[in-house]
Amino acid sequence: MKIEDARLAFVQGWGTLGTAWGIPRSMAQIHALLLCNPESLSTEDVMETIQLSRGNVNTNMRELIHWNLVKKQHKLGERKEFFAADQEIWSIAQHIVNERKRRELVPVQQLVKELRGEMIEGTPNEVKHFQAMLKDLDEFLDQMNTLADMAIKLNSNVLFKRLLKMLS
Amino acid sequence: MKIEDARLAFVQGWGTLGTAWGIPRSMAQIHALLLCNPESLSTEDVMETIQLSRGNVNTNMRELIHWNLVKKQHKLGERKEFFAADQEIWSIAQHIVNERKRRELVPVQQLVKELRGEMIEGTPNEVKHFQAMLKDLDEFLDQMNTLADMAIKLNSNVLFKRLLKMLS
DNA sequence: TTAAACTTTCAGTAATTATTGAAACTTTAA
DNA sequence: TTAAAGTTTCAATAATTACTGAAAGTTTAA
User: Fold this and answer.
1) Cα dist from B140 to A98, B85, B133, B136, whole Å
2) B64 and B32 both lie in a single domain
3) What distance in Å separates residue A3's CA from the closest CA in chain B?
4) Could you say which of B108, B111, B163 has the minimum Cβ distance to residue A163?
5) Would the CB atoms of A140 and B89 count as touching at under 8 Å?
6) Which of A135, A136, A152, B49 has the fewest Cβ atoms nearer than 10 Å?
7) Do B7 and B81 belong together in one domain?
């Protein structure tokens, strides 16, 4: 298999899977293409390799930069901008985890805390049940939050193995 | 605030947030409603409380049952089915993590392993880069997989605190 | 058996989200 | 300056995903 085809296969697969992660197909594809190229690429390189419109590439590239997954670069003597993906998998993971926390965890916590601050009127049994549920959820979300941070620190095999042992 | 309103607020919020988790709004709403009711509810209860069609409630309830988040129940003397949510937050988390692993982690691992099995033709530098990336990704995904399993086992404060200390 | 009570399915439609492409904008080199 | 090269924006459209409602199917009690 030629490297170009292998890259394309990776790009397509990553794109499909991206949608399962709640990430736009194009954004995932662009990221994949940058990941598997040692050189940085221009908007046009990306456009023609994965057949996307200029607007699409521009928008999603901005989003990738915002996620800290991609950096802008300039080449000597070239006017246009080039883009390169962060290649450190643990660094990538860190940024993805942070982004997902922001989108998925933080808003839930806000909701729960808001409701816990309310005075609830109803039969004692119902109120008790409702509040107990909120409390469990709140505590759980806190732990998840901490856990997500910790997961990122586990990038050394030493720590990872100690943890494995601890839980076995 | 009346308990009915508090429940509705929770249901609405959970529904909105559900979409950020890649879960259909209705499914999240139904789950939320069951979570905050001490009694099990019938399809019709759910339909009228959150204003959803019968088909929608039926379909999403089946999905919730498939995720092991909800159980069917029968009431003495009643012909229709009732539904109750699992109230154990760590058990809920376990099922959600398993489901997400199945949808989000497993397919990526397959893709990566498939590509690693290929012979790649290209310049040494490009091939080396491509394969190194796949290797990193593969190892990383393995660790993530293990980590997800472990996260679930951390439901005791004792373990959680030891881990915290270890990583601080 | 039959008919009422209840559940499931699914074609059609609505709502949401992603993508295009062209016009407007910005930067740079002559 | 100005015009060519490059970038950004965004209204229109396409693609995807979720929801409805009614018809078909199933179960149960008389």
Assistant:
1) 17, 34, 11, 6
2) yes
3) 5
4) B163
5) yes
6) A135
7) yes
DSSP output for A49-61 = HHT--HHHHHHHH
Q: A97-139, pLDDT tens digit by residue?
A: 888 888 888 888 999 999 999 999 999 999 999 999 999 999 8
User: Which amino acid is residue B4, in one-letter code?
Assistant: E
Distance B89 CA to D28 C1' (A): 37
CA/C1' separation A167–D11 (Å)? 55
Residue B122 to residue A167, Cβ atoms within 8 A: no
Domain of B53: which CATH number? 1.10.10.10
Tokens encoding B43: 């399809």
- pLDDT of chain B, 168 residues: tens digit per residue: 999 999 999 999 999 989 988 899 999 999 999 999 999 999 999 999 999 999 999 999 999 999 999 999 999 888 899 999 999 988 888 888 888 888 888 888 999 999 999 999 999 999 999 999 999 999 888 888 888 887 777 776 676 777 777 766
Q: Are residues A52 and A108 in the same domain?
A: no
**What total of structural domains would you count in chain A?**
2
Q: What is the span of the domain harbouring residue B77?
A: 3-85
Which bases of strand C have any atom within 7 Å of the beta carbon of a protein residue?
5-11, 16-23, 28-29
Residue of A nearest to B156 (CA): A143
What is the value of pTM for the model shown? Answer: 0.90
The domain boundary residue, chosen from A85, A108, A125: A85
Straight-line distance from CA A140 to C1' D17, in Å? 30
B74 and B115 fall within a common domain: no
Looking from the CA of A86 toward its CB, the CA atoms found within 13 Å total 17
Q: In which order are the strands placed within the sheet that holds A41-42?
A: A41-42, A81-85, A70-74
- A108 shares its domain with A42: no
Strand D: which positions are within 7 A of a protein CB?
Answer: 5-11, 16-23, 28-29
- B123 contact residues in A (CB cutoff 8 A): 3
